[in-house]
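Researcher: Last one for today. Full complex below.
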Amino acid sequence: MALTKEEVLHVAQLARLALEPGEVELFTRQLNDILAYVEKLQELDTSGVTPMAHVIPVFNAFREDEVKTGLDRDAALDNAPGREEGSFVVPRII
Amino acid sequence: MEYEAIIGLEIHAELLTASKIFCGCATTFGAPPNTQVCEVCLGMPGSLPVLNQKAVEFALKMALATDCRINEESVFARKNYFYPDLPKGYQISQYELPLAEHGHLDIRAGGETRRIGITRIHLEEDAGKLIHSEHRPVSFVDFNRTGVPLIEIVSEPDMRTPEEAVEYFKGLRNILLYLGICDGNMEEGSLRCDANISLRPMGQSEFGTKAELKNMNSFRFVKQALEYEIKRQRALLEAGKEIVQETRLWDTAQGQTASMRGKEETHDYRYFPDPDLVPVRIEAAWLEDLKAGLPELPTAKGQRFQEQYGLPAYDAEVLTGDKALADYFEACVKEFPQPKQVSNWIMVELLRELKTQDAGIAACPVTPGALGKLLALVEKGTISGSLAKKVFEEMWATGKDPEAIVKEKGLEQISDAGALEAAAQEILAAHPKEVADYQAGKTKVMGFFVGQLMRKTKGQANPQLANEIFQRLLE
Amino acid sequence: MTDALYSLSISELAPLLARREVSPVEVTEQLLERIERLDGALHAYLTVDGAGARAQAKEAEARLGQGEATPLTGIPMALKDVLITRGLRTTCASRILENFVPPFDATVCAKLRQAGAVFLGKVNMDEFAMGSSTENSAFGPTHNPWNRECIPGGSSGGSAAAVAADFCIASLGSDTGGSIRQPACHCGVVGLKPTYGRVSRYGLVAYASSLDQIGPLTKEVRDAALLLNCIAGHDHRDSTSLDAAVPDYLEGLGRGIKGLKIGVPREYFGAGLNPEVDAAVQNALKTLEGLGAELVEVSLPHSEYAVAVYYLVAVAEASSNLARYDGVKYGFRGEGRNLLEMYGATRTQGFGAEVRRRIMLGTYALSAGYYDAYYRKGSQVRALIRGDFETAFEKCEAVATPVSPTPAFRLGEKVSDPLTMYLSDIFTISANLAGIPGISVPCGFSASGLPIGLQLMGPPLGEATLLQAAYAFEQATDWHRRKPQL
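Model: Here's the assembly. Have a good evening.
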């Protein structure tokens, strides 16, 4: 399953990464190397094998429906790259 | 060519838990921006989600109330996409193993009962609020709503008309309110509805291409949007054009649906099980407890209203169509144990007044007890039925007790035969032609005489008595 | 004033503190001075918090005076910069968090604070823990104290170097594919990765959620046991943490390993293993035998697939975990006329090449049409790898292997070929995939003076046995006493 440059650009778009022109080639090559390597997994017959989640299965990790003190607004906004009167500010969608 | 519409609804209901689904922040609506947040719901590095048990409980109740099959084990999954109101860059939802599947809701439409299938009910977290600035190219983000628990209820594409869709939506909302797990407030966004609709030629089994409709925040808009969409799609199909699979927003001002994007951006959500959460295993004992603790649901209540109060099916349906209305009815019957009269009054006068005021029963200022007293006054004969309506309006406007209003305005029914007789004789004297007509056999003229007497006594004459007196005088 | 307090371990220093022979303020001061003077050459630290450390040292002194101390009270530590520390800059060695100051504490940090430890500062790492050499740090690599031209290992390179160079008494790092054990090995110190879920991940900036664990890097095994005592345990804020009792890991440490069955997996000793590493590890196995252990041959047949599984499962989870770095709520924001441009600029300029590469790989592995072939398949093979260990542990109580196929390579040697770099994780990755604990202890040196490590892995919640075995080995050898010349 070799990745084409178009697919690399598509994946980059999905991940909101803007690749520089030189990088597209490099990444395509490197990703293909890695993908060729991981192909070896296809050698294994895994029919009927349950995908692994946790080593010691845990279930029902619940919490009570209790209100706890969170962050005060200043603490919440302290690291915000853009803030205005209690809100986070971002550039317009379009 | 005859087309039929295939409609499915996806409903999101905010659950009435005190705290958010994965953290302890409050869920109250309307707080100042970013005052109900913490590192978890802000998606700060290193934070982790922990599931609110009550959210699971509420979701299970809805699943039980809609006859769903509860999955023994269910798993949370990440739905990955980028948007400013989604702090982690993914929404924690459920994908392959939802909490519940394969339920149904029976609705009445077009005089028939139809069973609408429910494909699945799953839990997920709500996103924040994005407010676009009008003057500058920026948007403001408030994360208070991020992490509020939602259940998503997905129906089978079983509905065939906008009416059915609205009935289904109303029915679901009713159950949510009956269960006390959602406040059903569509203006505030605690209950949202998206619709999928396609057309296909009658007789064809394959589905056509569907459009997804959003932004319909009332029953009326759901109906209008679906009606518009049916017209739009039919016009396209009849012109030989194709339906584009897209998301369309309902525009109330224009009365139409409009495509959301120039070019549809297909989402690849890259779902995978969330490794920060562990599966939910529902034990049979827990389900049994929940089942036993379910309140009386609309269908059962409707049945009981017919049996216990001797109400016809229609009355029962109208009254139980709204839990608050049903409760109001029963409280009123406690005060005035004549169920059919109470039912009539509520269905006619009360609902009319609510409609005029564009209010829900919660906003009705007349308490069930006060209404009961009013009806008791009518039965006693203290006031006439027609005047009772006026008194009711006054009660609504002033919040005063019916006795007080009757006294203040001197509206007591006149049942003094002597007083009425005098007035009756005046009327007969003033209308000799009508008297002659009556005596000639036109018994309908009685209505005229009684009407005149009512006018003369400002509606306070006891109509039965008036009738008797006139009959006697005219013999 | 006692000289070279900085060169002590926790186990050596704690009694001095408890007996009030030495003050935590003294130790802290010595370390701060040493860091200032010598870390320029190694670059272990990203942030030194002199003010904070001094304040904590004072508090510790007071507690020691009141007799309300724990073994960790007054012990100055370095924390890998992947751990969230309230009020103290936490960067994950990334531009995208260069100025991020968290408003909350990781659970392990809160526990350490409660125990009275002193935080000297935050140490260097591969960006977002993605790497095996600390060369992927956005702020420059850390150098191996034993040979400055070599890597210290990664991703907890700063932690390992700081411990080896006596720039702290002990450190906490994180391990997703070997990131504690491998740098510990390359720097000649002890490194422990606990069972998955043994230590809370709350406040550990996530790389691969189902593989990450926090663990100690220390100068001797006893210190690791001590730190594990403090940080292990169920945390209600981490749904994946285990609700299992925490034993006293110090108790029984000196029990010895007579009769302990130690498995030697044939797949870890073959072609590609550096002969010096092979020799040192074989020697170590002999030492273990000499101490009474019984060596048993075992097989872990799916070992050859571990790296492939890791570079599907870990990167997939990482691609999702790193989606939150979007310039909206915190961290670096790139310029853009609209949202899309802002996202692109933020994440392209904010993330280094290796991070972007792994995000791309992970996004692809999860994308429509590939989920089954990649992520799901990887998770299935993962179950097979765990199965291998389950079978092996029917025959033994621990498994002994090398930590790294070679001693520390030179800085810049492997940066141009990611795949080669990935393959160097081959011995440590399986423990993360299987969720089992693993410890690295020094077991020798290469001819050129670079440390070599021995790895012991155990069944889930088998830390006590691992620590006992490691302790027995350590006490019977001298490797851990050697210090690099700075």
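The mean pLDDT of chain C is 96. Chain C is about 40% helix and 15% strand.
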